[in-house]
Amino acid sequence: MSVVLKIEKLAKYFGTTKILKDISLDVNKGDVIAILGPSGSGKSTFLRCLNLLETPTRGKLSFDDKAYFNIDYCKDDFVDYQAYNKALEDYENLRVEAEDELAIYQNKKIEGDNSKELAQKIKEAKKRYKKVLSNPVEKIDFFDKEKYNEMSKNSANFVIGDKELNNLRAKITMVFQSFNIFNNIDVLTNCVMPQEKVLKRPHQEARNRAFTELKRVNMDDRMNYRPSALSGGQKQRVAIARALCIDPEVILFDEPTSALDPEMVNEVLNVMKKLAQEGRTMIVVTHEMDFARNVANRVVFIDNGYIVEENNSADFFAHPREKRTQEYLRFRQGEE
Amino acid sequence: MNFNKIGEILAENQEFIWAGIASTLILSIFGTVVGLFLGILLAYGKLIKVKELDNGFVKVLKNILKGFCIVYSTVFRGTPMMVQALIFKYGFQAIGVNFENFFFGSMVSNVLNGWLICGLIVITLNTAAYMGEVVISGLNGVDLGQVEGARSLGLSSRQTSMSVILPQALRNALPTIGNEFIVNIKDSSVLNVIATTELYYRLKDIAATNYAFLESYLILAVIYLIMTLLAALAFKLVEKKLDGKKISLNPFGRLLRRNEV
To answer: Among A185, A277, A175, A291, which residue's Cα sits nearest to residue A233?
Structure first.
């Protein structure tokens, strides 16, 4: 089996919060990977990093053996955060001190002291306050540029250009929890428009393709409806059809059923099951244990920014290796 | 008050009143349409994000553009249109542009005179400042997920804003845009201070020559009322059309349907 998507040492920080720390994963052609994990473990962020909706902090991502993102070192790693935070604190103290001083003099003036001395003092205090304000703490002052330049000189530092990125996103497309189908146009146009804009398909061909895909998800009877007239499950099926229209090689599902009630969950899961049987490559972030057990062929358990356990789905549920996984599974099974 | 007088005035001054209505419509429609277009540019200008990664030149350029847009909308929203009109009139005179010298042939000079051009400039620039805010609020009303949905399919950022975001933002803003149009119909009357011969200016003239003030201004009020009502109705229809609903001109349609249930 050939590797479609290769993820190496992926990390993502939001400021000082490290959401993803070190994630490596090979996605083979035809894989259906279920990603499990508690809320806040970084599952969605991981998925969003794959099509660069979220720019990873560092790591290497390649599609069909071609890297589209490769950064070994991130600037953030070379910021002395301890010193930076301390400087921020000091600055704040200085600022408050100067402000207080100024306020004391100004209060005296309000109370009726009109002496020249006081006016002079106010002037000086204002000057001091302005001086403090004019020297704010900048992150860049704590950035070790030399070390960064030295380290990054021989290392990879590559992000795909905007144009190629758009083409790549058509290959690695995404289905969202909140559907995100375009509200201003009807169902059919939702499926036709991206084909025309991204793949430059002629209108008639795009229409025919949209008919086929909408039929596949059983939405061909609602083609002229606006999204506002559809139920959640229907919206999600349209979103899937829309994604299928642009011939993706990998489809990322970001909790596609979390916003739906149980009945609608089934209609969406049935569509996804069908896609899995057709041999499409799918990465699914989900809380549906049944889907992970029966449809997915691999399961990845993410917690705390790392991959805790990765296995084929039968073994994952039958014999979880890690303690954390066992805990999670026991909890979820108790729930069901 | 004499009701016969009203009929008399209407009959005798038909031509002037129609000319007034025409120029008021030109002012308000042109001002709203072009103002909306400029407002979109203004909104995008105000929403420019200066990034840390930009190089020096781009940073300066972005700051200048953004600053201009902010100052522009502050100034134009913070001063009365009447004052703006006067400043434009005398400002143009000071640099040697006199709108009195603009002629468009005798046939149409009744409506299309130089002061109308000056009025058009003023009302457009003024509307643009308000439209900027209207468009910004419309853009804020669009769910961020729509952007992600479009980008994840491979649409470029320009394609995303042209075919997904802006249409939705304008749809959100449509009631406010309609409101702005109605305000323009009424507020174009202040342009009489620079001798733009719009509806109010005409009726003021008629009132003075016929020495029938109450009658003339009552006529004026009714004409404005009809114009604004029609404008409101037109915008309602456009809204329905954009939502993909069937348009029915029957005002009792809704009433009847309710009774059926």
So the answer is: A175
Q: Which residues contact A301 (CB under 8 A, 6 or more apart)?
A: A35, A36, A37, A307, A308, A309, A310, A316, A322, A324, A325, A328
Both tokens of residue B53?
Answer: 């990664």
Contact A250, A7 (CB under 8 A): no
SS3 content of chain B, % helix, strand, coil (to 5): 80, 0, 20
Pairwise CA distance, residues B162 & B147, whole Å: 11
Chain A residue nearest residue B145, CA to CA: A180
Which of A74, A197, A223 is best to mutate for the B interface (most B CBs within 10 A)? A197
Q: What does the block give as tokens for B126? A: 């003024």
Which residue of B145, B159, B167 is in closest CB contact with A178?
Answer: B145
Structure tokens at A157: 């530092």
Chain A residues touching B145 at Cβ < 8 A: 176, 178-180
Q: How far is B121 from A261, CA to CA, in rounded Å?
A: 55
User: Per residue in B24-66, pLDDT tens?
Assistant: 999 999 999 999 999 999 999 999 988 777 778 889 999 999 9
Are residues B159 and A162, on separate chains, in Cβ contact within 8 Å? Answer: no
The three-state DSSP-derived secondary structure of B89-127 is HHHHHHCCCCHHHCCCCCCCCCCCCHHHHHHHHHHHHHH
Residue B108 has pLDDT above 60, yes or no: no
Please write the tens of the pLDDT for every residue from B162-182.
999 999 999 999 999 999 999
Neighbours of A203 (CB within 10 A): 10
What's the CA gap between B126 and B118, in Å, rounded? 12
Please give the ipTM for the structure prediction.
0.78
Least Cα separation, residue A38 to chain B (angstroms): 23
The A281-285 sheet, strands edge to edge: A157-159, A66-71, A58-63, A3-14, A17-28, A306-312, A298-303, A32-36, A281-285, A250-254, A172-175
B120 Cβ contact list (under 8 Å, min separation 6):
B26, B27, B30, B31
> pLDDT confidence of B109, banded at 50, 70, 90?
low
For residue A179, list chain B residues with Cβ-Cβ distance below 8 A.
145, 149
CA–CA distance, B40 with B161 (Å, rounded to integer): 12
pLDDT interval class at B107 (50, 70, 90)? very low
Closest CB from B143, B148, B153 relative to A246: B153
Neighbours of B103 (CB within 10 A): 11
Q: Answer whether residue A84 shows pLDDT above 70.
A: yes
Q: Are strands A157-159 and A66-71 parallel, antiparallel or unpaired?
A: antiparallel
CB contact under 8 A, A239 and B145: no
At A27, the amino acid letter reads V
Please state, in angstroms and rounded to a whole number, the distance separating the CA atoms of residues A335 and A91. 50
> Which residue of B52, B147, B153, B171 is the best one to mutate when testing the A interface, meaning the one whose CB has the most A CBs within 10 A?
B153
How far, CA to CA in Å, does A66 sit from each of A22, B129, B172? 21, 49, 42
Phi then psi for A259, rounded to 5 degrees?
A: -95, 15
φ, ψ for residue B67 (rounded to 5)? -60, -45
Min Cα distance B187 → chain A (Å) is 32
Across the interface, do A186 and B149 touch by the CB < 8 Å criterion?
no
